[in-house]
Amino acid sequence: MQAGVLDTPAGYKIAFKEFAGIKSIKDIVIIVPATGVKQSYYFKFADFLRNNGYVVFTFDYGGIGESRKYGTLKGFRTSATAWAKNDLEAVIRFATGKYPGLSLVLIGHSIGGQLIGLAPSSVQARQVIIVAAQNGYWKFWKGGARWRMLFNWYFLFPVITKIFGYFPGKLLGAMEDLPSGMVAEWRKWCTTPDYFFSDYDRESLFFDKIRGELTVYSIADDDFAPEEAVDWLAGRYKGMSMNRKHLVPADFGMDKIGHFGMFRSTHKDSFWNMMLVDMEQEDNMVK
């Protein structure tokens, strides 16, 4: 694993790691993180892919993990859109520039699967894999979960962020701390039925411009990504053929999987191998 730092057009730096393939390199893989999740969460999965012949890049969004610019996030300016059009875009350009001629696979977890469609260079991908990536509009949730989402978006996130100048996710035991600009934009999306699609004209969105295979995973016991919300987002990748999988814990002899379970090393022989097979089947079809 090699560590690096990228200068970005937005004027801040982001940290990344490169896991260089130990065999003949098949493709470039970029893992696009969930909200408030450090790139280190995906290191073991990245190393698994490296051992299977891929060169893999992970990174921290601006203000997260190793990309955090200050001891406090007060005054740090970024947004959810910038995470896509600046941060992810910078990583794609760097990776494809370093390994010209290799195909690109983008693996987006949760918001990562959303932001892929906002990054212009995502159109280079031959495959997109989205794991628990969804439309975050609160009405996709049912029952008590819907009330929780309403509380989050109309009270918890805006009020706490205003008090601290950023969202103190670590203090609340929920996630990494989040920059205020990102929270404000994310909150707006999650209170809008069309999510961010009504914020952009067609030329600023790249979902329907990506070709190749889309692999979509949803998880039955996922409290953060209802199946219907995952289907909604997947339907925006209109130019791709879809491989759709809904995972039920009991089918794998498990009690739970949840929003984050697919990337845990305890599931190496199940979910990691499943994703690897999906990647390599499509790779063989392309080549």
Give short descriptive properties of this protein:
single chain; alpha/beta; Rossmann fold; eight-stranded mixed beta sheet; two-stranded antiparallel ribbon; 8 helices; 10 strands; hydrolase
How many separate helices?
8
CATH architectural name: 3-Layer(aba) Sandwich
The SSE string, one letter per element, is EEEHEHEHEHEHEHEHEH
CATH class: Alpha Beta
| Average pLDDT over all residues | 94
Largest sheet: 8 strands, mixed
Distance between the termini: 28 Å
Q: Which range best describes the helical content: under 10%, 10-25%, 25-40%, 40-55%, 55-70% or over 70%?
A: 25-40%
Strand-pairing-aware structural class: alpha/beta
Q: CATH homologous superfamily name?
A: Alpha/Beta hydrolase fold, catalytic domain
Q: Unreliable segments (pLDDT under 50, ≥5 consecutive)?
A: none
Q: Strand portion, in percent? A: 15-25%
Shape: globular
- At the third CATH level, what is the topology name? Rossmann fold
Q: Quickly count the domains.
A: 1
Rg to the nearest angstrom? 18 Å
Q: Provide the spatial order of strands within the biggest beta sheet.
A: 1-2-4-3-5-6-9-10
What's the number of extended β-strand segments? Answer: 10
Give a written overview of the molecule:
The chain has 287 residues and is of the alpha/beta class. It has one domain (2-136, 201-286): 3-Layer(aba) Sandwich (Rossmann fold), CATH 3.40.50. Helices cover 34% and strands 20% of the residues. The chain has 8 helices and 10 strands. It has an 8-stranded mixed beta sheet, with helices on both faces. Strands 7-8 form a two-stranded antiparallel ribbon. Helix 1 (43-51) links the parallel strand 3 (27-32) and strand 4. Helix 2 (80-98) packs across helix 6 and helix 4 runs antiparallel to helix 6 (180-190). The two termini are 28 Å apart. The mean pLDDT is 94.
